[in-house]
Amino acid sequence: MMIQLLAQTTPQPPDAGASAVLFYLFAILAGASALGVVLSRNIVRTAVFLLFTLTAVAGLYFLLDAEFLAAVQLVVYAGGTLVLIIFGVMLTSKSPGIRYEPKIGEVAVAIGVSVVSAVALVMAIVRQFPANSASVERHPTIADLGQTLLGDYLIPFELISVLLLVVMIGAAYLAKARRREGRP
Amino acid sequence: MESWWFGALGIAPTLLMRVIYSLLLIAVVFLPLVSVIAMFSIWWERKVAGHMQSRLGPNRVGPIGILQSIADGVKLILKEDLVPRSADSWLFRLAPYLAFAPVFAAFLALPFGPEFTFEPRLSAGLFWVLAILSVEVMGVILAGWASNNKWSLFGAMREAGQMVSYEIPLGIAILVGVMSAGTLNLVELGYIQGGGLHTWLIFQNPFTFLAFFCYFIASLASNKRAPFDLPESESELVAGFHTEYSGLRFSFFFFAEYAAMFIVGGIQAALFLGGWNDPFGLIGYYHHKWTADPNGVHATGLIALNAIAAAVFVLKALGIMFVQMWLRWTLPRPRIDQVLYVCIKVLLPLACVILLGGALWELFVPRRPGLPWVDYSPWRFGDYGQHHAMGTLVTQLVLSLVGVGLFVSLLGWVVFAAISGRNIKRRLTDPAPIVM
Asked: Which of A155, B69, B169, B244 satisfies CB 3.0 to 4.6 Å to B347 for a cystine?
């Protein structure tokens, strides 16, 4: 009996109760740390709150069986972009006590942008929700993703990689040009 | 597994019970496993270091000093938990957990045996481990930054630069193996390599063989092991990013480092060295034999098989860890610019060439389709010709011979050193009486 259960490698149906608990856990974590990102005045702490938000969203992807997306989220944003942000802060500022004071105009612009995007998101969710919520079939596989990216969407995929290459060459050129100016 | 426990104990699988079950699993199985592995490796590293430097290493607490890590753990727990006055105390306290938690989570995917994995359904398991390990660097950077100390900061900056650059050759080297296997699931990788030595991915083609070494070098750097231990180089930075840490928080960094060593070694074993399989494919053979018929599953045999498989896997991972330790106590430390030069101008182009070669090999060299034992018998060499896979077989056999030769010579070296080191040990412990 036990060994049959042990030997079971086929995917089991997702469990609604445990998934719900984890969903609310991740959702609360994502929301609370997003608030932390907005309200914190210390830029490194902001980055740490952003790390928590991104990790919680990766957890939500995980609950949706989108493991590949979750791992990409972690490796690109949490392990890559955030490290670069903190790296930049470390190179430019002098002490951890640095504080960021936003101006009134900036606050107004930020509130305006967030209200607009919140309205757009809520409208999108309300419009999409009844149609697609139950009928989505979940594939816990990355093979389809690979086939799609390198099959149907090959041209856009390659174009994006060329764009990234151009960006890299540009960054290297700029860095080199500045060094030549600085060191006569 | 979970439902079996609930059935055996007669508890209704309510939500609360399931949450309690998950927490118990973490507290009783997962955390002790990670801790025991980390504590054992810390003791072992000290022992290896001692013997390599003609010392004895820890030898007072327990037989051959094996309880030393527990004594140190008690000491570290009892120590005062200091936070420097000028540090950012919230980040300072948070950083050790951020360094430890990802390593802990990565254990989820390690394949200890065919049925003995915490989460076998991870279809992107290998990528998941890589991704979660890349988060570990955040803890180190924050520790260095929050300490508000120039040495810590230097250590953290080195760590960030090193980690971000060495992740690229590491990922590419893994990609070569994954391309040959066609899966990212660590359990499936075990099944694919179940047919004995020549089906292991390292011996699949010359490019996976090179990728193995490329991965090893890059993993040393991403684990901040010597010769790439610039983030904590004690000769210039005191102790690098954890200079200001004391007590339990300090020990978290050490646990994270040694657990990450085990994970990196385990991934290398699972991807290249056949995972839980023995060199003759016996585990794969018996596993297929005992599970082929769903009604006649050989239960006790499978349990024993999984135990043996786990032992083989752990042995392989520990073997790779031993090589890491060996290198640490042998090689001098280069400068940080040299470390980055090696990564970006040597290792990265090399990895790209290997990737290209591996891709071309997969395209043009025909191979045996299917899984070993399930679809074909891997040790019946005559059958390979019918599938036009003779070239693959010859490559695999030649590479296997090279690999076995390399392994035997390394092992012989270690055994020779251990035997000749005995004399030194005796001399150190029992000094000869001074003749007047």
From this structure: B169
The total domain count for chain A is 3
Q: Is the ipTM of this complex over 0.90?
A: no
Interface of B with A in 107-146 (CB under 8 A): 115-116, 120-124, 127-128, 130-132, 134-135, 137-138, 141-142, 145-146
Question: Alpha-carbon distance B18 to B28, whole Å?
Answer: 15
Phi and psi at B369, nearest 5°, equal -80, 155
The range of the structural domain enclosing residue A149 comes to 141-184
Q: Is A48 on the interface with B (CB under 8 A)?
A: yes
Mutant choice from B3, B14, B142 vs A, greatest count of A C-beta within 10 A = B142
Strand partners, B376: B372
Find tokens 């010392």 and name the residue.
Answer: B55
Residues facing residue B372 across a β-bridge: B376
Residues of chain A in contact with residue B153, where contact means CB-CB under 8 angstroms, are 90
From the list A12, A71, A89, the residue facing B127 with the nearest CB is A71
- Residue A7 lies inside a defined structural domain of this protein: no
Q: Kindly report, residue by residue over A68-101, the tens digit of the pLDDT.
A: 888 888 888 887 788 888 777 777 766 555 666 7
Across residues B336-361, what is the average pLDDT?
A: 88
Q: Within chain A, where are the H helices?
A: 2-6, 16-39, 43-63, 67-72, 82-92, 104-132, 143-150, 154-182
Instruction: Show which of residues 60-89 on chain B sit within 8 Å of chain A, judged by CB atoms.
Output: 86-88
